[in-house]
Design a protein that fits this description.
The chain is built from six helices and three strands, in the order βββαααααα. With 115 residues, it is an alpha+beta fold. Strands 1-2-3 form a three-stranded antiparallel beta sheet, with helices on one face. β1 and β2 (7-13) form a beta hairpin. It is elongated and about 50 Å long.
Length: 115
C-alpha cells in the first residue's frame, strides 16, 4: 500500500490492484475508497458512473466531472476492480459484499482486542 498525505494511492482489494492516484478528480478519491474498500455507497455522480448510467452521471456531475466523464470510464476500466462497476446489479452486489467483508474485519479486530 502506498500513501500520500494520509490518502491511499495504491492498494489491493480482493486480490486486485487499485490505483487511486490516477483518478481523474482527486476530490472524489475518498468516496471511491469508501465504496471500493468498505462497501459505502458513493455520491450520486460516481454512482451513476459505476452503474454505467450515462444520463444519471451527466445529471449529477458538477462542472469539473462533466468534462471528465470519458476519463472516469478509462479509470474504471484500467484501475478499478472489474466487479465494482458496470451495472446496477454489479454495484449492488459489490456494496453488499464489501460491506459484509468490512464488518467482518472490524468485528474480528474488536474480538481480538477484547481477548
Amino acid at each position: 500500500m502506498r500513501m500520500r498525505e494520509g490518502v491511499i494511492l495504491h492498494t489491493t482489494v480482493n486480490g486486485l490492484p487499485v490505483q487511486y492516484d490516477n483518478a481523474p478528480n482527486p476530490n472524489m478519491v475518498p468516496g471511491l475508497i469508501r465504496y471500493i474498500e468498505a462497501g459505502v455507497a458513493p455520491g450520486s455522480f460516481i454512482l451513476g458512473v459505476l452503474r454505467n448510467d450515462l444520463m444519471e452521471a451527466c445529471r449529477q456531475a458538477d462542472d469539473i466531472n462533466q468534462r471528465l466523464l470519458f476519463d472516469w470510464a478509462l479509470w474504471l476500466h484500467n484501475y478499478a476492480p472489474p466487479d465494482c462497476y458496470g451495472s446496477r446489479e454489479k454495484v449492488g452486489n459489490w456494496l453488499a459484499y464489501q460491506r459484509d467483508a468490512y464488518v467482518a474485519v472490524v468485528e474480528s479486530k474488536h474480538r481480538a482486542e477484547g481477548s
